[in-house]
Specification:
The chain is of the alpha/beta class and 288 residues long. Helix content is 42%, strand content 24%.
Amino acid sequence: MKWQGINEFVAVAETQSFSLAAKNLNISTAQVSRQISALEKRLKVKLFYRTTRKVSLTQEAQLFYQHCRHLLDSLDTAEQAITNLQSSPQGKIKLTVPVTYGEQKILPLVNDFVALHNEIEVTTELTNHRVDLIDGGFDIAIRLGQLQDSTLIAKRLSQRFNYVCATEDYLQTHGQPHSLSELKHHNCLLGTRDYWRFIEQGKEKAVRVKGNLRCNSGLSLVDAALKNIGIVQLPDYYVQAYIESGQLMRILDQFREPAEGIWAVYPQNRYMSPKIRLLIDHLAKYLQ
């Protein structure tokens, strides 16, 4: 008896519509209304404010929804766990990844993964915008650097360093900076921010820099640095090959920040199915 009306209540709470809830549950609007009325009578509280245009949750309903959503997620998890005991990983995974890091590091590994597991279908969306996983229907997001959204579960896959670099020709012509204050005398190639991050005397420090070139493409900034236009600060996956070949020189290493994390994140109310775990473990293994 205690489960009666819970599905209908959660559906109305999430759609804020009795008709949409009925459509999602494949039942009639009248049945949804009856179940909600019976639930309100049993709980002895009003759950929704209803007008001809809008349905909204009462304060009591907002609290009740959090618990009910958790119960339904747990039930789905239990059912999925039983199903997965009897089947190999299969189905769809939707992934969002930053553009350049995705192209260079993630997509080749995703291709290897799909080749190994042809019953799993992976859709990857490359974007530098921080998308909402729930609204976008994403199972996993790859995120770089510091994490901000504490509602997501995160697994550390790897790490990255930011390097300040320039060509030997540029440094011979303009001199090599040995302190952060000397950056103001140099042409600093800018991305989306007008400051660079460092560590000085154990403390984080943001140094405002200026230059005659700004672009939101790391690849373009690397090209400019290689053409002796100025100094650049970029993550290692942009510049590592050029550093190793001697085309770019690392400078100001004594002020470099510690390594930043590279993470796979997923919603905490999303069941960690074998296919999701398999992909995350695959990425972690080869990114290490």
